Amino acid sequence: SNRMASEMQQPRLPPGPMNPSMYPPQPIPVHHMTHPGTNPAMVPVQSNGVGDTHPKKKRRGLFSKELKQMMYGFGDVKNPSSASVELMEDIVFEYIIEMTKKAMDVGSKRGKLQIEDLVFLIRKDRKKYARVKELLTVYEDLKLAKKAFEVDGEKVP
């Protein structure tokens, strides 16, 4: 009777690659975790004599105000630690860099990046696609509204 009850509580999986009991839990190696000090996207670039050779320093804090507000909106404390904000900022920049590279690959035939390339990349993610479409529509509406206030190419006070 006890054996039958335990069999009912836990489904039996056949031996094979999908059976989790075949694979004991493994710790995640530290080098696979995103950390500001080990981020491959943040490795200093070679200088060509123009600009900063350390892009990480240049962009640090670019989105910190907005990220703090978003983190609070998603349940974090009102003033999150600077390390948390920096980590989030690194993740955001990694995502932007990755998506930009993919969009450049998509639009490589034209030789320049266009909004349509980014929209194409997110077309399968319904939430992102809907939000991007909404923002692009609002952007176009704002452009038309601004144009309506211009007379002969000059802004009306």
Give me the Rg, rounded. Answer: 25 Å
Q: Give the class from helix and strand content and strand pairing.
A: mainly alpha
Q: Which regions have little confidence, pLDDT < 50, spanning 5+ residues?
A: 26-54
Strand order of the largest sheet: 1-2
Overall geometry comes to extended
Task: Indicate the proportion of strand residues.
Answer: under 5%
C-alpha end-to-end distance = 86 Å
What order do the helices and strands come in, and which of them pair?
Blueprint: H1 2-9, H2 55-59, H3 64-73, H4 82-106, H5 115-121, H6 126-148, E1 150-151, E2 154-155
Antiparallel strand pairs: 1-2
Helix pairs in contact: 3-4, 4-5
Describe the fold and architecture:
With 157 residues, the protein is mainly alpha-helical. Helices cover 50% and strands 3% of the residues. The chain is built from 6 helices and 2 strands. A two-stranded antiparallel ribbon has the order 1-2.
List keywords for this structure.
157 residues; mainly alpha; extended
Outline:
The chain has 157 residues and is an all-alpha fold.
